[in-house]
Design goal:
The complex is a heterodimer. Chain A is α/β, with parallel strands linked by helices. Chain A contains 11 helices and 11 strands. Chain A has a 7-stranded mixed β-sheet with strand order 1-2-3-4-6-8-11, sandwiched between helices. The mean pLDDT of chain A is 93. The chains are: A alpha/beta, B mainly alpha.
Chain lengths: 267, 84
């Protein structure tokens, strides 16, 4: 399936580059519908890769790349079922999203996240599975999960640790603060900073450059430099589920969902 | 590099000018003690946008937790001044 247009995302192949575009309002929150379409995408990936040399993941919404997991859906669905069922549901969701993330992480072609605006939580984690992050100068990165009594659950910590020094990882994780694209580039998270509104164009130019090289050599280089921390990813799921059982999490989710605060995205 | 000798009044003035320009509000309508959420009519995502623009303009890193509870331009200027 070379082309797809769903309710949360779409993909297309242009000039040998797969472009996966997120477009679920308000800001590409990842809930069950987006997950289902991401699964559809990774299911089609093997076929797409045969005629492509790179993948670009981006958002077509103005607000940003992705604001993370759909906390409203998580909270509201958990209210309708028992606590044990909710915990089981969260584990199943995490197992599924990890399969998606791991598949993109291991894709046999170079992958580029072209990000702008809000790149928070699960959105940050989606960017982290890509080989390169190209950021609009107005992009902001954040792991706000600790304020809910949780840790990032879509593979964020092991992948951030793979790319950055532990001091930066702890700062981002323990303070929940956001950093801008310039800071993210200075610590080695972002490879290129683009002017406002130019991240996708820069990503396309980068993908075109990547396409000049021998495909097998490129894959060998990628696999050599970017090991996937499977064991830590498994432990992250277990720890997330353990923390999800704490009463503080329900209270934190309720506070976020019911918030009329002007600053729900500020720690 | 932003000059490190800027006074708090200069910093405040530049914040007001930047906010007026970006959010298309007449500069004369903004005062140092205004609640910028109300005056600019911005939500939390737009606040992050403003934060990024201020970090770029002043060439500082301003952790967003330092903005918690800050809603007026004067206090915001003080937070930025402390990072210059």
């Amino acid at each position: 399936m070379n082309q797809f247009t769903g309710q949360s995302l779409s993909w297309d192949v242009k000039d040998g580059v797969i472009e996966l575009s997120l477009h679920r309002a308000p800001c590409n929150e990842i809930g069950s519908r987006t997950l289902g379409e991401l699964e559809k995408f990774v299911g089609a990936l093997a076929g797409l890769v045969a005629e492509s040399h790179a993948l670009i993941v981006h958002s077509s919404l103005e607000c940003g790349f992705c604001a993370g997991a759909d906390l409203r859906e998580l909270y509201q669905s958990a209210q309708k079922i028992s606590k044990n069922e909710a915990r089981q549901g969260v584990r199943e969701f995490l197992e599924r999203i990890h399969r998606v993330m791991n598949t993109i992480d291991a894709a046999p072609i170079p992958t580029i996240a072209a990000v702008h605006g809000v790149t928070f939580g699960g959105g940050f984690e989606l960017a982290l599975v890509c080989d390169l992050i190209i950021a609009d100068k107005m992009a902001r990165f954040c792991f706000p999960e600790l304020r809910l009594g949780l840790i990032p659950g879509f593979g964020g910590i092991p992948r951030l640790k793979r790319d950055l020094g532990n001091g930066v990882v702890r700062d981002l994780l323990l303070t929940g603060r956001s950093i801008n694209a310039t800071k993210a580039q200075s610590v080695g998270l972002v490879s290129q900073v683009a002017a406002e509104g130019e991240a996708l164009r820069v990503a396309r130019a980068t993908a075109a450059q990547i396409g000049k090289f021998d495909r097998r050599t490129t894959l060998a280089a990628k696999q050599f430099i970017k090991p996937i921390p499977y064991e830590e990813l498994r432990r992250e799921i277990d720890l997330f589920c353990e923390l999800f059982a704490q009463p503080a999490v329900e209270a934190g989710l309720r506070k976020f969902v019911e918030s009329t605060d002007a600053q729900p995205y500020l720690p | 590099m932003y000059p490190s000798m800027a006074t708090i009044d200069q910093t405040l003035d530049e914040i007001l000018t930047l906010a007026a320009s970006h959010f298309k509000v007449p500069r004369g309508r903004l005062s140092p003690d205004d609640d910028f959420f109300k005056t600019l009519g911005i939500d939390s995502l737009q606040t992050l946008d403003l934060l990024t623009r201020l970090e770029q303009h002043f060439d500082v890193e301003l952790p967003d937790y330092e903005l918690q509870g800050v809603s007026d331009f004067r206090t915001l200027a003080g937070r930025i001044q402390a990072r210059l």
